[in-house]
């Protein structure tokens, strides 16, 4: 089909006047007002051919001349494109595309399970190890680092540095992988132990939020009076406490060795300087060195008492660490009426739970924060 040539010329000034009479100022962009003698634009097109009936335009050459405020800029788009296409890079600088693909030699993979949080709604919410907890699962990659030497851990426990690769930047980052070597000999491979720990941390995180809100509300005298400086200080320090995230990792068979279990704890990394404030044999284990460096001491023991009463004397925090930044980790909870599922057939575990509740009542020392939040003296 023959091509049709179109020539575009600048409109005649008389036509401009006719157009300007029909278009009002509100309809016309002032920046493009052709009636302004100080603003103008002229375009010259040459040798442009458009094939009629086809949705494709081919231009053999295009030269545009733009005049704006007396300045003239010339563009030749065809020549620019041609120059770019003729640019040849030095072969020594070329890197094949496959060299940029990530090396998976040190990356392992598995399924990451994250328990969904919730808010307390009951009058006496307690930890329920048999609760059906919704969770999210993701196939993830992770890299393991060197082993971390942790005090107060038995030789069966292994803790390693790890980095989690995840599409969500709030989840990706540095973690600690933790597992017990004895889990590799169990049929469950540590599944129930890992989920039990994750549910413990989930419950304590919810209880801590309730504790922090109560302290904030009670910063004023009688609830609505003047702010008490000491009570305000307690609320501020308590707000810096947080429960480290704890997820469950089911590693693939190719990512584990013979002496490693398939299920592992994936917890947020803490600093090397920490103190175990609570464990099953000592419910009042204050730091002996530099006590002034641990402003959370009184708050942690008041929180232990608070959680116990919040649950109707049914839930007990039996293990808790806190690092120098106020991050709580290694949390273990006991329910007075239910033995942990992984030890449901163990008579020794049932006795250990009963003994822990008795020791807490005997060893706990109420402090000013306990009294402030309304906890009843256990003695």
TrEMBL record:
Gene3D superfamilies: MHCK/EF2 kinase. The keyword Repeat does not apply. Residues 168-370 form the Alpha-type protein kinase domain. It holds the Pfam family Alpha_kinase. This is Alpha-type protein kinase domain-containing protein. Keywords: Kinase, Serine/threonine-protein kinase, Transferase. GO terms for molecular function: ATP binding; protein serine/threonine kinase activity. The keyword Transferase applies. InterPro entries: a-kinase_dom, Kinase-like_dom_sf.
């Amino acid at each position: 089909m023959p091509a049709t040539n179109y020539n575009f010329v600048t409109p005649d000034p008389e036509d401009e006047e006719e157009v300007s009479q029909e278009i009002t100022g509100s309809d016309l962009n002032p920046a493009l007002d052709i009636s302004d003698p100080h603003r103008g634009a002229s375009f010259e097109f040459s040798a442009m051919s458009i094939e009629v009936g086809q949705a494709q335009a081919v231009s053999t050459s295009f030269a545009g001349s733009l005049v704006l405020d007396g300045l003239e800029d010339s563009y030749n788009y065809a020549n620019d494109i041609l120059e770019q296409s003729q640019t040849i890079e030095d072969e020594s600088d070329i890197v094949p595309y496959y060299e940029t693909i990530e090396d998976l030699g040190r990356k392992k993979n598995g399924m990451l399970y994250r328990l969904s949080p919730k808010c307390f709604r009951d009058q006496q919410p307690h930890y329920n190890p048999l609760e059906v907890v919704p969770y999210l699962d993701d196939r993830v990659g992770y890299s393991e680092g060197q082993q971390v030497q942790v005090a107060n851990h038995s030789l069966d426990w292994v803790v390693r540095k790890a980095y989690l690769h995840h599409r969500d930047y709030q989840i990706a980052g540095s973690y600690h992988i933790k597992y017990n070597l004895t889990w590799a000999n169990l049929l469950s491979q540590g599944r129930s132990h890992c989920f039990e720990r994750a549910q413990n941390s989930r419950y304590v995180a919810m209880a801590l939020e309730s504790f922090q809100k109560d302290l904030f509300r009670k910063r004023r005298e009688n609830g609505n009076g003047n702010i008490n400086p000491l009570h305000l200080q307690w609320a501020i320090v308590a707000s810096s406490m947080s429960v480290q995230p704890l997820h469950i990792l089911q590693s693939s068979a190719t990512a584990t060795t013979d002496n490693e279990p398939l299920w592992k704890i994936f917890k947020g990394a803490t600093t090397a300087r920490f103190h175990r404030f609570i464990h099953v044999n000592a419910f009042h284990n204050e730091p002996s060195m530099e006590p002034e460096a641990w402003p959370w001491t009184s708050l942690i023991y008041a929180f232990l008492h608070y959680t116990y009463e919040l649950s109707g004397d049914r839930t007990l925090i039996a293990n808790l660490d806190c690092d120098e930044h106020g991050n709580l980790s290694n949390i273990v909870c006991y329910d007075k009426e239910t033995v942990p599922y992984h030890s449901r057939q163990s008579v020794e575990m049932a006795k250990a739970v009963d003994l822990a509740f008795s020791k807490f009542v005997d060893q706990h020392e109420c402090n000013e924060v306990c009294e402030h939040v309304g906890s009843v003296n256990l003695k």
